[in-house]
Specification:
The protein is of the alpha+beta class. It is 30% helix and 25% strand. The strands form 7 sheets. The protein has an 8-stranded mixed β-sheet with strand order 3-5-1-12-9-10-11-20. The protein has a 6-stranded mixed β-sheet with strand order 7-15-14-13-8-30. It has a 4-stranded mixed β-sheet with strand order 16-27-28-29, with helices on both faces. A hairpin with a 5-residue loop joins strand 17 and strand 18. Helix 10 packs across helix 11 and helix 14 packs parallel to helix 15. It is globular. The protein starts with 7 loop residues before the first helix and ends with a strand. It binds ligand MTE, hypoxanthine (HPA) and dioxothiomolybdenum(VI) ion (MOS). Dioxothiomolybdenum(VI) ion binds next to loops.
Length: 772
């Protein structure tokens, strides 16, 4: 049912309380980080005298002030909270200072005098590959006989796909508040997708027990993956200062520090060779997939695994070999970002398919359709999962028809023949995205539900609200199970003392997981109440029904609140937990084989763009999307996720450029130099539809499908539409390689290459053709 976001009225009226808005005790201190200015080096000495003498300063804390473990890394313990003598990226936290005011803390933090002994820095993927500098051992996945199949392919192309990273640019930056409690306890208010991990890291850093640390999060002003592991650093630093001073400490990063210090989407390169037949069907593919992980492992293992597991997108790759290199560089440690490596894997195959189509002078859509997974044959992925729910072919056909893709392609060809400066391009790309955490153990959730004697319900679950509408959807589920109006349900802040040992709210799975856990808790309560009513009025428990705030037991009829009061008087427990774990899945992280995903979410998009060939500027003219959310729990919220995810992806692929200088300093650390999409980038015509009548074939909550991340990848259609427009400036059969983001500069570079080649009448340098 379409219901507005539970906090919509609070968001728009400014009444929603984010961490920074919460009233705090008067003895609160504000904190700021002091950070490294160089990419790699040994700290010879730090002179803190000017920091300590700065007005308002109460305390500073560095590595030696941490009572427990100086680490916030979750999987590998390779992320120091404060650099312990070596710095590994420009922006690395060295110490934190607590002062009586926010500005005082920031000013003081800049006054440390650090003497470094610089060490050689590896800054990009190529340099890391050359030095074999890796955060994790290289992995390989192979199926069929890729080398033999390549050798016998009638056509071959070789090339490189390049794509940049992305800053999360959540509107609310990283923030934590640490409030000391009695007997060494610590309460944290943290803007985090992963309260349980913040709890664990803070407990380890303070050498406390988990039961002494409580972490709460009511909402985030966006997370997008950037608050899966990074908040533990902020919370731990605040907690160390709170421990040292005995006073509450708030640590809120300003935007520049946030962008310099915290991890981003991984940039990737892919060196590939593909073999195909004259219809465009792929016979063999070999890919070296390499990403810039930064100085530590963080989530780079699972991110790169997901890239490997999405390099097929919706296509059957019979003979394939993938080498996955997780490169260590002296840059910020990259982390989760919406899609979690999936988008990067999919950009690679979509660019390859586009190249195949251009080489063969075919419509790229035809080539895509020829390579789609089948339903009975050609339906096993290279990681061993059978695609049981494939709906990509009919979904794409429907979108091609409703968007008039074929007719518009002809119109665009005519336009391009008549116009010299403004060129147009169109592309339709599909999405098939695996739903579940690849690490099987995280696919679980818990809930805690209380019913009070006025008939109202308070719910806690392990998921966090970052704007995606999780709390709304879970409240809807509980209301439905108890036959109550939505107004009777309140979802309160996520709290490690209510539901323990939770997973991150991530992998788009939080409604699947927490929705089912909350349903289990609500069903337990309903059964207890039904049992009580049945015994009291002598009817079968199954005959007791809950609807519209009423309960019917034979001839008897009560309001829910009346029944609850009677049950409470009869000493029936009105509180329950619920637990859920995803069935059927299992994945071997060593061999990258198994069934990592419970199911797949599908979608497709058509983008039409115009490109100004004099300035390189691009404009998104029209977008048509058909997206599969199963039986949508809340179409209004799901449409918002599709639109927002799509545009966030457009930002990644067209305008958001991270730029480091040769010293490894990030220069794009503010909105002045880093361009995220705004209202003006909204396509002139934007038609988004959810696929109707397509319930999830797996037993998910009310047969819905996860929707948080998959739509981001629909934006690949925009990149390829730009490529299509650029290609129209060359001769047919040219590849028109475009790197992402397709900024005006990148577009002009691609145009220059295409024109030079057209003039010379040679094949582009990047793609090489086999003897045909
Ligand atoms: N939507 C909003 N408004 N804000 C966010 O931070 N994060 C995205 C997506 N949609 C995000 C969002 C990411 S990265 C994920 S994994 C999912 O939401 C997580 O929530 P879900 O599991 O409830 O979909
Ligand atoms: N997706 C998102 N976040 C994650 C995952 C995943 O598969 N695994 C660990 N964190
Ligand atoms: Mo989302 S990248 O799984 O937080």
């Amino acid at each position: 049912m379409s219901i507005r976001h539970e906090s919509a009225h609070l968001h728009v009226s400014g009444q929603a309380l984010y961490a920074d808005d919460i009233p705090l005790p008067a003895n609160l201190l504000h904190a700021a980080f002091g950070s490294s200015t160089i990419a790699h080096g040994r700290i010879r000495s730090i002179d803190m005298s000017a920091v300590l003498a700065s007005p308002g300063v109460v305390a500073v804390a560095g590595a030696s002030d941490i009572p427990g473990e100086n680490n916030y890394g979750s999987i590998l313990h390779d992320d120091p909270i404060f650099a312990p003598g070596i710095v590994q990226y420009a922006g690395a936290p060295l110490f934190a200072v607590a002062a009586t005011g926010y500005t005082a803390a920031r000013k003081a933090a800049g006054r440390a005098r650090v003497d470094y002994e610089p060490l050689p820095a590896i800054l990009d993927i190529r340099a890391a590959l050359a030095a074999q500098s890796m955060v994790l051992p290289t992995e390989r996945v192979e199926r069929g006989r890729p080398s033999e199949a390549l050798a016998r392919s009638p056509y071959r192309l070789r090339g490189t796909v390049l794509m940049g990273g992305q800053d999360h640019f959540y509107l609310e930056g990283q923030i934590a508040i640490a409030i000391p409690q009695e007997e060494g306890g610590m309460l944290l208010i943290s803007s985090t997708q992963h309260p349980a991990e913040v709890q664990q890291v803070v407990a380890q850093a303070l050498a406390r027990r988990a039961n002494q640390v409580i972490v709460q999060c009511r909402r985030m002003g966006g997370g997008f993956g950037g608050k899966e592991t990074q908040p533990a650093l902020i919370a731990a630093a605040a907690a160390v200062l709170a421990h040292k001073t005995g006073r509450p400490v708030k640590l809120r990063l300003d935007r520049d520090t946030d962008m310099l210090m915290t991890g981003k989407r991984h940039d990737f390169l892919a060196d590939y060779e593909v073999g195909f037949d004259s219809t465009g069907r792929i016979i063999a593919l070999t890919v070296l997939l390499a990403s810039r992980c930064g100085y530590s492992a963080d989530l780079s293992g699972p991110v790169n695994d997901r890239a490997v597991a999405h390099i097929d997108n919706a296509y059957f790759l019979e003979n394939v070999a993938i080498v996955s290199c997780r490169c260590k560089t002296h840059t910020v440690s990259n982390t989760a970002f919406r899609g979690f490596g999936g988008p990067q894997g999919m950009v690679v195959i979509e660019q390859i398919i586009d190249s195949i189509a251009r080489k063969l002078r075919l419509d790229p859509l035809e080539v895509r359709e020829r390579n789609f997974y089948g339903t009975d044959t050609r339906n096993v992925t290279h990681y061993g999962q059978t695609v049981e729910d494939n709906i990509i072919q009919p979904l794409v056909e429907r979108l091609a028809a409703s968007s008039e893709y074929r007719k518009r392609r002809e119109q665009i060809a005519r336009w391009n023949a008549q116009h010299g400066v403004i060129k147009r391009g169109i592309a339709l790309t599909p999405v098939k995205f695996g739903i579940s955490f690849t690490a099987t153990m995280w696919n679980k959730a818990g809930a805690l539900l209380h019913v009070y004697t006025d008939g109202t319900v308070l719910l806690n679950h392990g998921g966090t609200e970052m704007g995606q509408g999780l709390f709304t959807k879970v409240a809807q589920i509980v209301a439905c199970e108890l036959g109550l109006p939505l107004t009777a349900i309140r979802v309160s802040a996520t709290d490690t003392s209510k539901v323990p040992n939770t997973s991150a709210t991530a992998a788009s799975s939080s409604t699947d997981l927490n929705g089912k856990a909350a349903q289990a808790a609500a069903q337990a309560i309903r059964q207890r109440l039904a049992q009580f009513a049945a015994e009291t009025w002598g009817v079968e428990p199954a005959k007791v029904t809950f609807q519209d705030g009423q309960v019917f037991a034979g001839e008897e009829r009560f309001t829910f609140a009346e029944l609850v009061r009677l049950a409470n008087g009869a000493r029936v427990s009105l509180s329950s937990t619920g637990y859920y774990r995803t069935p059927k899945i299992g994945w071997d992280k060593k061999t990258l084989q198994g069934r990592p995903f419970f199911y797949y979410a599908y979608g497709a998009a058509v983008s039409e763009v115009s490109v100004d060939t004099l300035t390189g500027e691009t404009q998104l003219l029209r977008v048509d999307i058909l997206h599969d959310a199963g039986s949508s729990l809340n179409p209004a919220i799901d449409l918002g996720q599709v639109e927002g995810g799509f545009l966030q992806g457009v930002g990644w692929l067209t305008s958001e450029e991270l730029w480091w200088n040769s010293q490894g300093e990030l220069h794009t650390h503010a909105p002045s130099t880093y361009k995220i999409p705004t209202a003006r980038d909204w396509p002139s015509l934007f038609r988004v539809e959810l696929l109707e009548g397509a319930p999830n074939r797996e037993d998910t909550i009310y047969r819905s499908k996860a929707v948080g991340e998959p739509p981001l990848m629909l934006s690949i259609s925009t990149l390829l539409a730009i490529r299509d427009a650029i290609a129209s400036c060359g001769s047919s059969g040219q590849l028109a390689e475009i790197t992402a983001p397709a900024t005006p500069e990148a577009v002009l570079r691609a145009l220059a290459a295409v024109r030079a080649e057209a003039k010379a009448g040679v094949a582009p340098a990047i793609g090489t053709e086999a003897a045909v």
